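Record format v2
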Amino acid sequence: MKYWRKPLDLESIKASRGKVIIVEDRCKGCEFCVAYCPRDVLGMSQTFSVRGYHTPVVIDESKCVNCHFCEALCPEFAIYSIEEAEATKRETARSRRKNK
Amino acid sequence: MADKAVLTGTYFMNGDYACCEGALAAGCRFFAGYPITPATEITERMSRRLPELGGIFIQMEDEIASMAAVLGASWGGVKAMTSTSGPGFSLMMENIGLGICTETPCVICNVQRAGPSTGLPTLVGQGDMMQARWGSHGHYEVIALAPSSPQEMFDLTIRAFNLSEQYRIPVMIMADEVVGHMNERVVIPRKDEIELIGRRKPKVSPHDYLPYHPDPDGVAPMANCGDGYRIHITGLTHDERGYPGMDEATQAQMVNRLIRKIADNKDKIIRTENICLDDADVVVVAYGISARSARQAVRDARSGGIRAGLIKLETVWPFPETLIRDVAAQVRALVMPEINAGQMVLELQRCAGGACPVHLVSHLGGSIIHPSTILSAIKDAIKGRK
Amino acid sequence: MKTKKAKKNVPGHPMEDLIRSERLPHIWCAGCGIGTVFGSVMAAIQKSGYDLDKTAIVSGIGCTARMAGYIRLDSFHTTHGRALPFATGLKLANPKLKVLVVSGDGDLLAIGGNHFIHAARRNIDITVICVNNLNYGMTGGQLAPSTPFGAKTTTSVSGCPEEPFNFCYLASACGAIYVARWTSLHIRRLTNSITEAMQKRGFGFVEILTPCPTSFGRRNKIGTALETLKFYHERSVIRNDIDPKEAPIDFGSNIVVGKFVDTERPTFLDNYQLSCKKQIGDWPDFEGTMVQDNQAL
């Protein structure tokens, strides 16, 4: 990002990074999340879920800023986002347990 | 302060007022009603008395709202009541059904007047008896009581609250305009002489609680709104968790349970006053104000040498099937006076099962049945004349 | 039908505690806005800070009213149109409860119309969430007092011959102290509105326009639910604080949304308490009486 001046707290402020979790079984394929994600993180899958719907898939997770808009808009509670740092922490703990 | 609710003493009191006092003595602290002759006095007295006891009185916009508010208040944890007459009773039917299906304790007093429709607003009738049993759609059991004096208006209102709390069901008091408007001696006992029953609370934790899982007596403990049990209550056919179940099995389970809850406890619920039955040749079966006329007629018959008896129905629903079956087998005839074209007499005929003839003394409404009319019917019955 | 549990060690949906997830998937159609409103209502309840054990939902009959069955709070699914008087009784019997009425446009304002105007007039302390999908959805799409003039429904195949209500105008005229309208796309503002309404003492009314793709949308060739949301996005204008009379839902031009009324008035219990004091000199604080704490009124 090009700055015309450098913000004093540029180093300390970290932009939120999110991880999207999709509960495929609950989704009814309304496409709200895909259309209204402000960062175009999602797209629709080509395959069908067990219910016969096309569900959302994460296209580019790096763009997710954990704004929770998909989570708020979804009528089915089928999609939500969590803080990436939190997700990484959990993944690390999980793999640590697996490797024990 | 608390004994402001129980006005111990002897009074010359209007039946409607006695009903109000009975409710307050029973612990009723919420009343939602709508004015309708001849029950307006209950509403008016409640509006004056409830503020004295820290209770809530609200005159709702119609009887439908009154019944809904009473159900809501009951779930809020307060004993609640409404009163009405025929036209309002018809309006309340849907919500009475909701109360029965959700098993909500509450009391409805119907001070009957002559119908159908607007009818004779200021004059007596007893034409809502079958409506009390079958007025709402679907199949269910009810409890209905019939006071025949202002004293009974007081006593039976207390009993109605006790039954409603014990069996988690809306209980109807089927009074009539004469009993409601007559002034007579009412003795209000001391507070400690009045037995009160409250709803059974759950003993398990919220996690384990099933709102419609009955105890051995068929009644489920009731958690109120705000007790932390996170209950879901619906008028849809529901399972023990309270969740809607759209299938025959859930329907069978729920409706059977609602029916059995009352049917299996019939013996504890049914009460009659039996007078001179042992040697009776003719027995008069009556309720409400007609029981007062019948009592006089039976007295006159006895002094005229006829062995007459009286069964005064205190509970009209459930109907005392077993008692009638036994009595019908032993007497020569049954007589029923009613201020309608024959409603409870159909039950009487059904339960008598042809063991003896059943005679109806019918008056269509507008005044009470004179004892002499009943006496003539008793004489005809003895002679085998219809 | 059991839903597949999310992967182990991944946190569940943030609303999981408030949803009766054993009953999911819910009955609402794909694209129905009610699910979104449901999420909003739960978020607002959480945000409002009220004790969840003392928060109750009362609903009538209809698609929106089914919300009562999916939320893990004390909830009452009553008869058609009678949620408001039921909620009145519930609130007056236990003023410590926070009572929300969640129901649809037909339930609240057609069959329940009489109860609506009186509950607003009395200023009963409840928050009313009215989901407006422009028809009676549950029974297949009949006309309702919200159906736009000329719209097709199963009971108006040649176009609805009736003008609809302006619900916000009606609520405001009847004395509601908080009136707002949003669409199900305006989620954040909607959540805030519901929270604000809950935190006010008195009759709060929030109307939410939602897509009904299966009934209304299909018969009026509106397209998918997503297209309805896009329509709302384009056509809605936010006008806070204007007179609700000037805030119609005009599908020809603009859908006016916003917070229209935010005022104060004594509630029913405030006035009842005053009149009781006049009658008996003091409002007694009886042991065992249900109005325990006057401050809770």
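The longest strand of chain B covers residues 106-114.
Chain B touches chain C through 49 residues (CB under 8 Å).
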